Automatic annotation (TrEMBL):
Name of the protein described by the UniProt record: Clustered mitochondria protein homolog
A GO term for molecular function: mRNA binding
Organism from which the protein derives: Lates calcarifer
Composition bias type Basic and acidic residues, residue spans: 1-20
Gene behind the chain: CLUH
Domain named Clu: residues: 329-571
Cytoplasm listed as a keyword: yes
Pfam families: CLU, CLU_N, eIF3_p135, TPR_12
Family indicated by similarity: Belongs to the CLU family.
Function: mRNA-binding protein involved in proper cytoplasmic distribution of mitochondria. Specifically binds mRNAs of nuclear-encoded mitochondrial proteins in the cytoplasm and regulates transport or translation of these transcripts close to mitochondria, playing a role in mitochondrial biogenesis.
Start and end residues of each stretch annotated as Disordered: 1-31, 1248-1272
GO biological-process terms attached to the record: intracellular distribution of mitochondria; mitochondrion organization
Record GO cellular component, one term: cytoplasm
Amino acid sequence: MVNGDGAHEHTEEAETKQDGTAEADGGEESNEQEVIVIQDTGFTVKIQAPGTEPFDLQVSPQEMVQEIHQVLMDREDTCHRTCFSLQLDGNVLDNFAELKSIEGLQEGSLLKVVEEPYTVREARIHVRHIRDLLKSLDPSDAYNGVDCNSLSFLSIFTDGDLGDSGKRKKKGNELEQIDCTPPEHILPGSKERPLVPLQPQNKDWKPMQCLKVLTMSGWNPPPGNRKMHGDLMYLYIVTVEERHVSVTASTRGFYLNQSTTYTFNPKPANPSFLSHSLVELLSQISPAFKKNFHCPAKEKRHPFERIATPFQVYSWTAPQVDHAMDCVRAEDAYTSRLGYEEHIPGQTRDWNEELQTTRELPRKNLPERLLRERAIFKVHSDFAAAATRGAMAVIDGNVMAINPGEETRMQMFIWNNIFFSLGFDVRDHYRELGGDAAAHAAPTNDLNGVRAYGAVDVEGLYTLGTVVVDYRGYRVTAQSIIPGILEREQEQSVIYGSIDFGKTVVSHSKYLELLEKTSRPLKVQRHNVLNEKNDSVELCSSVECKGIIGNDGRHYILDLLRTFPPDLNFLPVDGEELPLESQRQGFPRQHRHRLACLRQELIEAFVEHRYLLFMKMAALQLMQQKVSTDKPATTQNGECKSPLEGKELEESIPGLAQAKELAETLVAEDGSDPKSREVVLNACKAVGSISNTSFDIRFNPDIFSPGVRFPDDSADDVQKQKQLLKDAAAFLVSCQIPSLVKDCLDHSALPMDGATLTEALHQRGINVRYLGTVLEFVDKTPAKAQLEHFYRIGISELITRCAKHIFKTYLQGVELSALSAAVSHFLNCFLSSFPDAVAHLPPDELVSRRKSRKRRNRVPGSGDNTAWASLTPSELWKNIASEAQSYYHFTIQCESVDQVVEKYNLQKTTLLREISVKTGIQILIKEYNFDSRHKPAFTEEDILNIFPVVKHVNPKASDAFHFFQSGQAKVQQGFLKEGCELINEALNLFNNVYGPMHVEICACLRLLARLNYIMGDHPEALSNQQKAVLMSERVLGIEHPNTIQEYMHLALYCFANGQLSTALKLLYRARYLMLLVCGEDHPEMALLDSNIGLVLHGVMEYDLSLRFLENALTINTKYHGPRSLKVALSHHLVARVYESKAEFRSALQHEKEGYTIYKNQMGEAHEKTKESSEYLKYLTQQAVALQRTMNEIYKNGSNASIMPLKFTAPSMASVLEQLNIINGIIFIPLSQKDLENLKAEVQRRQQLQELGKNEEPTEDSPLELEDKIPID
């Protein structure tokens, strides 16, 4: 059964386990996928392959024949076939036909698999496929970052698949068998942060034991006379038994020939073992091959461990992997073609045509939109992969420039129908705007523009495929090519916009009409500018945005770097004053370039904020009209500029809510009543709306652009726009930054590393260049101690970003042959305590290079190639400090890494991870001694690779996302059943568009698992959460904060399913990862340690349990304040363990603390307070009973009559109950009446939260099922 996942070559692997050979897990795997959105129902066909029994396959009418091919290549008994056709009643089916279009194909039809003659192309595909099967268990592709493979380690901690082991009933003695002690470095308080456990060795990852060598033979290609006998190519194979054979691939199949290494004899050997598949041939000549070869479908591994991800994920650490001979890899390297591109006639793909054609697909109904979005997503991910390969080839010097005569910085390249340019300021294009710094920033701005226009998705308006790749210190922009653009001069082709930043400007009616449609969603104002003849020209974008009609007749827009308005905080303009809020923070500040613009998220937030202000204004005026019929209706509040005044007004006036409703109806009216018209007009003026009759805020992106002039008649308008930009800049500083800090204080934002911090900033529209400002703000916050984790992550991010900027220019001067030496030297200067790190120059190589230097000007790197070797640690840290000052306007007073680590309490492993991830370095996984003062930490052997860092557009699955959101909304209202159905539906649609692997599917699975769990279906929760963990590891990375969260959820469901040892292993893994990523001092660590402590309590490891729970108590007290309900709960958990140890005095002490907090926060009457008081009574009784017994023993010695004391191990149910409380889960019996009560309860809790300052004992308000990716 394949859910119409067309166009995705590898998607079906997850769903094809329908047949009898599937694992126990297979059934579960497919059930949730059964609901096919598209209304046509599926049907079953029979498939008969040579030498196997016929089997049934569920198909849907939308699928293509090709998808059945894919299923067969993934099935165990047919996985070695690639060259076959499917026939119905002797007619060959067209591979690209949809099943519904095939005559006579119906329920129960028999499709025959017929072996077809090979061609050279088919033979190559076959050999590649066999090699992929042989390599499927080998992780080297994941370490090398190729073919969309990535790592996953979950199965090591769950011992294979969770599905089966969950079914075993546990015997009474299960508790004794668990070894619960974690390794030393995981215990609270441990200071060592080892690196090796990050990638535990998987015993299943054996190197290929089927064959020693499989490569192309040196006798290729076949000579003419052999071609006429049907020889296609020759292979050279060494079996495990050391048998060397030469194989002919012919049109009829594969057979042994009589050639040896030095003599060519193409005649068939005797016997020749002619077989249609290479696997059949090898099974006959090598017993070891026959024994060891099996299809990956048979593996115990979860399919999610090997399905390709949509975009490549790179690992920053890797073990030393043996380099094995590999014919297919070798051949790929020598042909400039891309891996699987052989599928397409004409060899290279016309990327522009593919990208634009998919946009033009119809989108009237759901099935059409799904097909369209799937096609768009597929082409985008293919394009990103091709562009990345091309960019690396360009920088590595393997592509000829199209202007080879120019100096290297100015060269441009075309490879595989993609245009590549380097991020340097060539021909002084950006001289006014900041030279190279502007040329470096422009591509990412442009990409943001492409993303924004792509999301608006206006029919008839086209953007270029754009990917920005940072590799070896260079920034490369890859773009698809507009048809015909290379044949003509740019001057002739641009019919809209300006090619010289606004000196000459042209416009075009068709472009205005198309861009008008984007004006409202992107908040871009139509405006007039003057051209060189002083004529007024109308535009609906910035002047740089150029319109070109391609030879294909499509309207393209490019150079979208100023889609969003400029950020005045970083753009000092003579004679312009910023609002006070900005000035107080030291703005405007000089930036490296003049292209700093506001983020789209900020624009949205600002407009939203202004809309609320607008409503308040209108409401206030209405009230004044009501009140003051005697006074004339003036608008003394008309100038409500500062956001604070707005708030105060709201509190001071009764009846504002009714007035607001009135205002809403009034805004919706057509404005016929003059009084209401005046109200709207005043409110519009006050908030800077561009219309006088309704709320409408848009920005003119050309304001403050050097070189752009506006006609005199729009002077007022321009003035208004300037004010709006100043207000937006002030809004960022006065509203968005404080709201981010507030969210961190109440833990609704919990960044754990640089990436999640950046994401938290971006979600609120704050650019990373504000990082210094944010940190200063935190520094001045009264509750600074509760933001220590945030401050530390911010400092580490700021330092590693400064180091990245320096590393970029450092690498540009390095020859390829010295790359590993240079990288290791840089890391030594950055992280090693060794004071005089010396670079090792490879002497002999450099000498010979020197002579040939004159001729080689291919690679963009130039300048003295050994300058990098003179860098010293103190110089690097001086540079980092000055970079922090000049870029982030933040002062770091530190001369060395050790001072920084000391002063800001950072970890060197964390810094290493951050710098490696940001720059694409891959290092050998081993324990590094950073603190040795006698030898440097890194040698050049420790640097394994340098990867590209890639930015691209992520096309969205819009329908799926709406389903997902409405599902979430339903769940939050307490309608779990409906919510669950909607989210299942969303999962289906996501699968349809993205294939099985994607971050959004991950969020979907996590939420589903949580719902399954709340509704009491533990096995289903386990199955969904297992997929979420695997997917998070594969798509985000094995130590991404999101993955850590997923591990925690999975541990909870494992515990509930009675798999205690697995739950502990998962929690220990999560703790290890968290220590590595952000250290122990983080609010989330308290939750993790509470989880670990509870599970240990449940398995009666009391002392160990206390270590974790007491650590959680310390962290909770620090980050939530000593009076928080979280702290009360922590005290209670600790007390329970002391009770189990019969140390009643300590238990009482902790429970009293908890009781006091409950009493003060919730009052005497609250159930929590009562529970706590009951527990105190019970503890006191126990303590008294124990004392009596002890006294009895002292008095009467050994013949005392001893009362049996109750020392109870906690029941699993009680431990689980506490686990659910700390993880913010409440259970819901699902009757209608209960649901009514639940909704009342949710409302009650919300009111409580307002009173108790958000300090409910649950994690989030209980039903806010964490949905934000990736920060919960």
